[in-house]
Specification:
By secondary structure, the protein is α+β, with helices and mostly antiparallel strands. Helix content is about 55%, strand content about 10%. The protein has 2 domains: about 5-240, no CATH class; about 245-380, no CATH class.
Amino acid sequence: MKLDTQSFIRVSQIIERDSKDTSYKFALLRATIDVISLYDQQIVNLNSRVLIPTGLIIERWLWYYYPLIDSDIFLPQKNGEPKELTRGKNISFRKHFISLINSYSKYGKFEHFYNDYKRKNLPNEVNEELIKLVSDLYKTITSMPMKYIGKSFSKDEYSIYNIEKSKNRIKSSSIISTNLLLKEFGSFSIPNDFYLVLKYLGSFISGSNTLINNWADFIVKANKKHFLEKEYVLKKLYIRPESYRDVNEVKKFYSKQKNLFCVWSGKRITNSTLNVDHVLPFAHYLNNDLWNLLPALNRINGKKSDKVPTPELIEKQNDIILNYWGMLQDHFKNGFEEEVKISLVPDIELNDISIWGKPTIEALQGKADFLINVRGLEPWYN
């Protein structure tokens, strides 16, 4: 689809002119960009609009706001927001977020929470607080920023974001996970041209000089009580939970395997030469899913660095990649299969690798092709 300048102007107007009473707008746009970048297989094209799971937006808000609220220095997310919980003065979900953080505090910090969440290993009392929080986040996201984004130029509510399917019926006995959020919180749609702008220019929009930078400026200005260092705020905003995944767990698994070979060179790996490579480099594709963590020789991984393997190279190494995926599926069954379905091939059963292997490799090739030919990242030919 051809993009005209109006599409870019509309996004710019939303960032610069829409109401800034809270940080919700920044969080929603950033989350939409991240979801488009990371979970494009979950997006459905409806011709003039695209359909996106609301649950993935809720999950991103968890990752954004946890470090901002769990901060030694109070970081307001609303103009003049007080540190003390005051009816009508705080962001709508701060109370439940504080309850969640306090409930989890005896188990660890944000990075531990993230890992426990991914492993579906949150203590029962924490999961109970999380159920309340995600429901609160859903209500806020759908009734506030989704409703008002774009009103500065259209004068209409829900002019950009439309709630297409709405459930929000999580049972008290549910275990919160990415998959559950996908199933239980329905979806929303945005115009196709708006989607394309975020898809192709999202990394610039959420860069240090635009969206996140504006969010940090907002927090600093919203604070009315004491001096706040912008650098401190930016540090909190740039926390990426994916970086906390324990890659050593995967490395430990590979180190116990016999006859281990480099995914890119095919040469034998010993424990002293073993490295875990992000197939799609973490610096450009923030993903620590098991399918993206494959064994490579230290020196080969050093040469590859942040380059992206070409679709042709992935095809050439098809057999060895599938071999490692099979091993990961056997050892990390539930986690591996859920991550593959969420990030690569949503509508396929992972029973027989001879059937699901080919479309999954093709999905990986598609992501690599996008990073190389659209994002302009350096290709890796080996």
